[in-house]
Write a structure and sequence with these properties.
The protein is of the alpha+beta class. The protein has ten helices and 26 strands. The strands form five sheets. Strands 4, 5, 6, 7, 13, 14, 15, 16 and 17 form a nine-stranded mixed beta sheet that branches. A six-stranded mixed beta sheet has the order 8-3-2-12-19-18. A four-stranded mixed beta sheet has the order 1-11-10-9, with no helix packed on it.
């Protein structure tokens, strides 16, 4: 490894964020958000969009420290595999964990589209594969099981003996994403500051006062109705010392290393990669005008427990070159990930009117966004589907029956969840008389059914009420909407509301 390489992340090196002032006045706002990384800026943006006045306090610079140390894999695929989640928490809870990640992906995409943010956002598949060197039959079986479970729980997944680029057995998960986090966070901060809310940097939180609820910083006081502690390791705030100490005992801090460098365009496909090594390696690319930039991470160890961190970078660079021999390394950096005692993050109220979040492990982009969403819901008094699942004092999430989808059907995510589920096939030939399926035909999803006379009818699968995808009712031979109960005849005509207009005919 070349000694002249600085430890500076690619994101920090390729995008700037304008400076924000330090707090210089007393304020009265609806919410104070402490921390201007992904969690804090997501929470502040959503609260501001809901009509709340927000003050964001950042002790250093907007964009955060740990948010810039990420490799920005935007994925629902958790460090703990699905089989492990099912074993320890039950099937409904396992689905809920991955659903939460997908909801976060949908939220980022919605913000990018609504605000027109140029942050290199792209949906790409994720590939979890047997290591390039080594691996075992147990690794292959685990990947087969993860793909099977993911399909059963409604996710787009398949096992392959020959995964793209790595040419090793792997599981491919659809609907993941990647982006440039610094470009995204710059845009969020700009929008927050334009609408009667505030962003301050060089403003550490000195004290949280309970009555009246307020934050003291830079010799000033901000009075508020709610506080969001969006720091990597949560501040104590107004939580009592015993509770704060107990939470700390459930957190395990690890350092993870990253190297990045140039390759010729097309050398590596635009996918997310992870292997099944322990600790695992992970890779993605960022597109540039005349080349691609490869980001390769791994070699995790407990923070402070490596004798030679330079050697950690050297080993990682060697692994990166085995994967991509032509890689010209130009960057290296490290970040800290926080694991928890049971594999799930802690997201929720740490005290009355005080929200905290930590323990995202390898899912910082999705769980960080989710934490911002959940902070918004807590502050605005809205029920959130994942509230008990990630609660800081959770005691009820292991095993037991939980009608997860039914209880949360009114939450906006479930109005679009069907869109993340893969089609039921690509060929009309497999349709039997009296059968209907959502298929992918010529690159488009269609609701296709075959009548008793053998004729096939194709309509749009998108319910005209709220945009959910319909499902085939085999007994009644109708297309039924699982979100709000609309029903349609095979030709798309409305049989029962609340939909008022028929399904669109498929234009062949």
């Amino acid at each position: 490894m070349r000694d002249e390489l600085d430890t500076k992340s690619y994101w920090t090196d390729t995008e700037s964020i304008p400076g924000y002032p330090a707090l210089d006045r007393d304020l009265d706002v609806d919410a104070v958000v402490v921390g201007a990384g992904l969690t804090g800026l997501t929470a502040a943006y959503l609260l501001q969009r809901s009509g709340r006045r927000v003050a964001v306090l950042e002790r250093m610079h907007v964009g955060g420290v740990d948010s810039m140390a990420t490799t920005a894999h935007v994925t629902c695929v958790t460090d703990t595999d699905l089989a492990g989640l099912v074993k320890h928490f039950g099937r409904d809870h396992a689905q809920a964990v991955w659903d939460a990640g997908f909801a976060a992906i949908e939220q980022i995409e919605a913000i990018v589209n609504a605000e027109g943010i140029d942050c290199d956002w792209r949906r790409v598949p994720g590939v979890k594969h047997v290591p390039l060197a080594g691996g075992s039959n147990d690794d292959v079986k685990a990947l087969q099981e993860e793909a099977r479970l993911a399909r059963e729980l409604g996710f787009d997944a398949e096992f392959t003996d020959d995964a793209p680029f790595v040419a090793r057995p792997g599981a491919i998960f659809g609907g993941q994403a990647r982006f440039h986090p610094r470009k995204y966070l710059r845009a969020l901060a700009e929008r927050i500051g334009r609408h009667d809310s505030f962003v301050f940097e060089q403003t550490p939180c000195d004290e949280v006062v309970d009555d009246p609820l307020s934050v003291k910083a830079c010799g000033r006081t901000i009075t508020c109705k709610y506080i969001v502690l969006a720091t990597h390791t949560p501040l104590m705030g107004k939580t009592n010392l015993a509770s704060a100490t107990l939470l700390q005992t459930k957190l395990y801090l690890y350092t993870s290393y990253v190297v990045g460098g140039r390759v010729a365009k097309g050398t590596v496909p635009d996918l997310l990669f992870w292997d099944t090594a322990s600790p695992y390696h992970y890779m993605r690319l960022a597109e540039r005008a005349d080349h691609d930039f490869i980001i390769f991470g791994g070699n995790d160890h407990k923070t402070g427990q490596a004798e030679d961190t330079v050697r950690c970078f050297e080993r990682l660079e060697a692994a990166a070159r085995r994967a991509v021999p032509s890689l010209d390394v130009t960057h290296r950096w490290s970040g800290q990930v926080i694991e928890t005692n049971d594999g799930l993050p802690f997201i929720g109220e740490s005290s009355s009117r005080q929200f905290a979040a930590t323990g995202y492990a390898g899912n910082g982009m999705t769980f960080g966004t989710l934490a911002g969403m959940m902070a918004h819901d807590a502050c605005t008094g809205r029920k959130n589907p994942w509230q008990e699942l990630f609660d800081l004092g959770r005691t009820k999430v292991r095993g037991g029956a939980w009608d997860y989808l039914k209880e949360n059907v009114d939450y906006p995510y479930y109005m679009i969840r069907d869109r993340i589920v893969g089609p039921q096939g690509t060929s009309l030939r497999a349709l039997q008389a009296g059968e209907g399926k959502v298929l992918e035909v010529d690159g488009e999803r269609v609701a296709a059914s075959r009548g008793a006379d053998g004729r096939v009818t194709m309509v749009s699968p998108v319910c005209t009420h709220m945009g959910c995808l319909v499902e085939w009712n085999r007994a009644e031979k109708t297309w039924d909407c699982p979100c709000h109960g609309s029903r349609f005849l095979p030709d798309g005509k409305v049989l029962a509301g609340p939909a008022e207009t028929p399904l669109e005919p498929h234009k062949a």
